[in-house]
Amino acid sequence: MKLAKHLCGLAAAFLVTLPAVAQAPPAPDPNDPDAVLVEELVVTARDRGPAWWRVTNGVSTVYVLGVPSSMPKSFPWDDAVLERRLMGANKVILPFNNVGVGVLGAPGVLFDLARMKSGTPIEATLDPALKARFVAARTRVGQPAKRYALRNGLAAGILLVSDYREAAHITSADPAKTIARKAKARKLKTETKVYPLGPIMGAALRTSPAAQRACLEDALEEVEAGEASSRRAAQAWADGEVRAALGGERGYEKCLNSAPGAGDLDARLKADQAAAIAAALKQPGHAVAVVQLRPLLAQGGVLDRLRAQGFTVKTPGEE
Question: Whole-model pTM?
């Protein structure tokens, strides 16, 4: 029973920490596809509140809201522009960053999770310096050593960050959850996508020891940076200060892309979101899309792909 409970908790951690086939410019670094941004798209908003980009084919428009990958729960932000753009919208496209377990895939996922379990806390396998950091981090989030009885550094990092975000009241669900609720209240059609968890779990098991260590170190950096880093980035986002909003701690998301096959999944997420926006442009009127900031603005990202397809992209600094 305890093992099942632990494995379910680890599966949930994979779900909440994940970040998002047309032709597009290749990503500059396969281990960090969001490292290089399209600089002309990183623009401070003219309107009050978070920054919006516009994609148009000359007839129809999709208003795109870039959002953080995580932020403090119940963080206040001005939604006046959102409310205005939801009026008359024919669709709301939510972030394509969800994963799930189907009935047929559940046994395989549980098997992969069980293979990560260990009879010894992972801190016992770490060198003294890294162990000291890990013990300090798990103590900070109020968890015992046995919570992280895992043989995989990437899995331990995912679980640690999940525990930290829960303790610090940081969520990866908002603001998309709030926007979905507003869309439902207006009876607007919403679109999202769920990707299978099984391949992601399998990739975690195939990650090299060196990459696992790097992931664990990245996770520790997020915990050590503390809530203040997340709050500063969220405030910058709420003020439309795009570059400052992109300055939040992100080593952990970068680390996830080092797992085998993660680069392909990242490209698929971006291609799928770009395709959803392109499809919405075929309908008269306007739609609203919500995309995480770095996948939105990176070279080879969602907006870069749409420009490559011939659509016009206007920045938050334009009329």
Answer: 0.83
**Residues β-bridged to residue 66:** 291
**C-alpha pair distances (Å), 156 with each of 111, 170, 253, 303:** 17, 19, 14, 33
Q: Is the pLDDT of residue 9 over 60?
A: no
Asked whether residue 44 is domain-assigned, the answer is yes
Q: Is residue 319 part of a domain?
A: no
Q: How many domains does the chain have?
A: 1
Question: pLDDT tens digits, residue range 97-111?
Answer: 655 434 333 344 444
Return phi, psi of residue 285, to 5°.
95, -145
Instruction: Say if 265 falls within a structural domain.
Output: yes
Instruction: Note down the domain range covering 140.
Output: 2-314
CA distance 145 to 241: 40
Token couple for 61: 């428009």
Residue 245 identity (one-letter amino acid): A
Residue 60 contacts residue 286 (beta carbons within 8 Å): yes
CB 16 within 8 A of CB 172: yes
Helix intervals (H) in 103-189? 106-116, 128-140, 153-167, 176-185
Q: Give domain status of residue 100, yes or no.
A: yes
